[in-house]
Amino acid sequence: xxxxxxxxxxxxxxxxxxxxxxxxxxxxxxxxxxxxxxxxxxxxxxxxxxxxxxxxxxxxxxxxxxxxxxxxxxxxxxxxxxxxxxxxxxxxxxxxxxxxxxxxxxxxxxxxxxxxxxxxxxxxxxxxxxxxxxxxxxxxxxxxxxxxxxxxxxxxxxxxxxxxxxxxxxxxxxxxxxxxxxxxxxxxxxxxxxx
Length: 195
Description:
Elements: E1 4-13, E2 16-21, E3 24-29, H1 32-35, E4 44-53, E5 58-63, H2 66-76, H3 83-92, H4 95-103, H5 107-111, H6 118-137, H7 149-159, H8 164-172, H9 181-194
Parallel strand pairs: 3-5
Antiparallel strand pairs: 1-2, 1-4, 2-3, 4-5
Helix pairs in contact: 2-3, 4-6, 7-8, 7-9, 8-9
């Protein structure tokens, strides 16, 4: 898996850009929310990425923030939502506005995004409600660079499919001490195995 890229932008044609890293040009599709913050051609950029492997292609998607990548990956788990729709959602609405739309069951906001109809919006309400609560109510639920080990461990547990309350309980069960993110995750998972 390619988790991030840092290199020079050699072309920009929304939604695609090419980033040259060590002499290799990576074609990356990015949402407009990321595209608007890209530096000029020839400048260096650092993006978080997600690789989608299909039978006929390997597609690399790039994101400016951890929250954007988290939402993209979470959207891919929703029935009937593929990379194209997930990218359209991220291009048409901010992560925070999306979370509020889901929590408020705001159909009108979601159907304004190309490719999202009423049925897809209703499916998003059902399948995303608990996941966006993690995003909007848990500080550090989506780990960012430089985050503390506790919030990074929380983000990892959420990524493994634990609900927010369960992940918090597992982390609280870890004996007090100074741990790295990896140690915290390991100890929390050991606690879950004992339960």
